[in-house]
Amino acid sequence: MKIVINGIHANLRFASAHMIPGHEFCGGIHGHSYHVDVVVEGERSGQFGFVVDFKAVKAIVRKLCKKLDHKVLLPLESDQITFTNMDESLEFSIGSKNYVLPNEDCCLLPITSTSAEELSRFFAHYVHQALEDLGVNIEGVEICVNEGIGQGAHYTFRT
Ligand SMILES: [Zn+2]
Fold this sequence. Notes:
2 helices; 21% helix; 10 strands; 41% strand; alpha+beta; elongated; binds zinc ion; Tetrahydropterin Synthase, Chain A; three-stranded antiparallel sheet; five-stranded antiparallel sheet
């Protein structure tokens, strides 16, 4: 059985800036109001016959949304971004473009790109791991990271 959480209605949102290096329109820094839809699949169990408590899933997703909210998202594993200083100021270059940003304004993520596709994969792994840490026996986590209303990327992590 599956439980489904709608990111807009459950307030699983974050507003962040990013760029897609090399992309004609998305190469410059710009922002999105993201929301995250979640599906958790598993067997019903316990006193209440839940797949998993909605509240537990929402708390996990919200924690990650909060980490990303109002930050410039930067992918640490991109082969197109060269980081030259990672102290108080974050200095990096993308091709001929040089950036200096306060570290506290940025969120560095262990992914290759901050595309909706990669963010979705990252969220799915994170939520899956967090549920496992709680001892929840699940079969899969499906995430859709939406870049605004009407467009998002789905990723399913199967146990
Ligand atoms: Zn974008």
